[in-house]
Amino acid sequence: MCVQDLEKVCEEIDHLCLSTDNNNNNNIHNHTTQVAANQINLSTSFPMESICENTVVSEEKYNNFIPILRSGEWSDIGQRPYMEDTHICIPDLARNFSNKLLGEEAISFYGVFDGHGGEGASHFVRDNLPRIIVDDDNFPLELEKVVTRSFMETDAAFARSCAVESALSSGTTALTAMIFGRSLLVANAGDCRAVLSRHGLAFEMSKDHRPCYDKERIRIESLGGFVEDGYLNGQLAVTRAIGNWHIKGLKEMDDHIGPLSAEPELKLTTLTKEDEFLIIGSDGIWDVFRNQNAVDFVRRRLQDHNDVKRCCKEMVEEAMKRGADDNLTVVIVCFQAEPPPQMVVPRGRVRRSISAEGLLNLKFHLDG
């Protein structure tokens, strides 16, 4: 499905958020790696904290705001014969890998990986990308550069693995979110999507990398690729992914790089007290949920019971009721301990008027 989300508020705002956690559907598959507890208190901000381009957040909005992370997730195989989705949640990235920065402020890491052509690539990225990020010499001071470089290095490492074990040959989209202090950094390669609820409004933290996206089509054609029937080189439904080295002409073309890129697009934002939660989902979720619809659904469920994992389960079940036929994975990260507040929409006074001609017609009908 290659339909761009038309919600204006999501397209016009360039700053959003991202997060993830993991749990599994015990009735179907357990494709999650969960590393620690589901609640973290982040008390200070990191040196690189900044606001995304063309965005101004007043000091009053985030002064003294301390995000309290509560997360949950749910996965289901859906109507597919195989489960190729997976995801991960690491509340403290450095501590998890016994990094020398142990004791510094926690950097939380969340990721959703939607595999295609097998589960090899998605599982490889889940298991290796976080460590590659932590092992980078510039982690965590130049986090944006580190994340971009780590996506590319993970792609190259997977290519080497496939050369040794051809059965691994496959591909995966990847969307990650890192939260440090009040900063949120989202990196996306593919068509998983992250949507932030800010005071009840949906804001995209990522753009779907599909051939129908003009920016991607231009990039593809500049590298010698083409779009045919909505597919990259007539073969793939996404334009950025890790893996797929086995498909000729996608990653390498003669003496230059191919049109399928593993380089992620990044978005950085500063969390404020108006930020309620982040939804991260594989494309199967977004086939049946529009951005604002998803935010409204999650808000209502959290207001009902304030159980994040239960909310994820309900969202996956709702997607299946709506006819989703793909693998389904959703991760929700809340930034506050309390459920989202009820929205009160003021009803303005609407002046009603009727034209002179309308008055004459009304008088005519009343007089019989």
TrEMBL record:
Its EC number is 3.1.3.16. It catalyses: O-phospho-L-threonyl-[protein] + H2O = L-threonyl-[protein] + phosphate; O-phospho-L-seryl-[protein] + H2O = L-seryl-[protein] + phosphate. Residues 70-335 form the PPM-type phosphatase domain. One of its GO terms (cellular component) is nucleus. One of its GO terms (molecular function) is protein serine/threonine phosphatase activity. It comes from the Eukaryota. The keyword Mitochondrion does not apply. PROSITE patterns: PPM_1, PPM_2. Pfam families: PP2C. It is an enzyme of class 3 (hydrolase). Keywords: Hydrolase, Magnesium, Manganese, Metal-binding, Protein phosphatase. Its cofactor is Mg(2+); Mn(2+). GO terms for biological process: signal transduction. The keyword Magnesium applies. Belongs to the PP2C family. This is protein-serine/threonine phosphatase. It comes from Helianthus annuus.
